[in-house]
From TrEMBL:
Domain Peroxisomal multifunctional enzyme type 2-like N-terminal: start-end pairs: 1-116
InterPro entries per record: HotDog_dom_sf (IPR029069), MaoC-like_dom (IPR002539), MFE-2_N (IPR054357)
Name recorded for this polypeptide: MaoC-like domain-containing protein
GO terms of molecular function: (3S)-3-hydroxyacyl-CoA dehydrogenase (NAD+) activity; 17-beta-hydroxysteroid dehydrogenase (NAD+) activity; enoyl-CoA hydratase activity
Superkingdom of the organism of origin: Eukaryota
Lineage of the species this protein comes from: Eukaryota, Sar, Alveolata, Perkinsozoa, Perkinsea
GO biological process, one term: fatty acid beta-oxidation
GO cellular component assignments: peroxisome
Ranges of residues in domain MaoC-like: 133-200
């Protein structure tokens, strides 16, 4: 209950929560297309030629996230477009700002992969961060099954890509059924990391 119930004595936001906030943008109650328009900036919506998939995510938490406030702003901009042989990658950055103090609270790097899209002109400076996987046994191993109900509930956070809820859409793109949101999987993974390596304290994650 710590991450979902505001009256819990240890109520705290999961460190990966800011990624979900970016889907809704402002105070929209509508079902928004994926990716949302504010991710795309001046590029506008790109007509999909295949599935539109989450790419990489790179969060930097600059201060501990509060549990409530009314004066936040999110500022997004496109940082790079890369035309690949199998599609196009659009990278963006979202900064979450405390409007009362002007402090930046989080910087979120996002990338979206448009499978099959051709003809875009590459621009900007694509991210070149490469994380090397250690060549040794893992420090911990945790196994968890993400149920269909959890996937459908996660959609209510604002990640409305139909690939994750509509079997017909998923099959049209070559998948046997709707697939789990990458960010839903990330949220579960972050929770396990906090439990195993941060003594259960989400404030330790940066």
């Amino acid at each position: 209950l710590r991450y979902i119930y505001e009256n819990n004595d240890e109520f705290a936001p999961l460190p990966s929560m800011p990624f979900a906030l970016t889907f809704k943008g402002g105070n929209s109650a509508d079902v928004l297309p994926f990716p949302p328009q504010h991710f795309m900036g001046a590029i506008g919506q790109i007509p999909p030629q295949g599935p539109v998939l989450d790419g990489e995510r790179s969060p930097t938490l600059l201060k501990q996230l509060p549990t409530s406030t009314k004066n936040w702003a999110m500022r997004s901009r496109v940082t790079a477009v890369s035309q690949k042989r199998s599609g196009a990658v659009v990278e963006s950055e979202t900064i979450i700002v405390d409007k009362d103090t002007g402090e930046e609270c989080a910087r979120l790097g996002n990338s979206v992969f448009y499978v099959g899209v051709k003809g875009l002109q590459s621009a900007g400076e694509p991210s070149k961060v490469v994380i090397e996987i250690p060549q040794r046994p893992p420090d911990r191993e945790v196994s968890e099954t993400i149920t269909l109900e959890r996937v459908q509930t996660y959609r209510l956070s604002g990640d409305y890509n139909p690939l994750h809820v509509d079997d017909d859409v998923a099959k049209a793109f070559g998948f046997p059924r709707a697939i789990v949101h990458g960010l839903c999987t990330l949220g579960h993974s972050v929770r396990h990391v906090i439990k195993e390596f941060a003594n259960g304290d989400p404030g330790e994650v940066r």
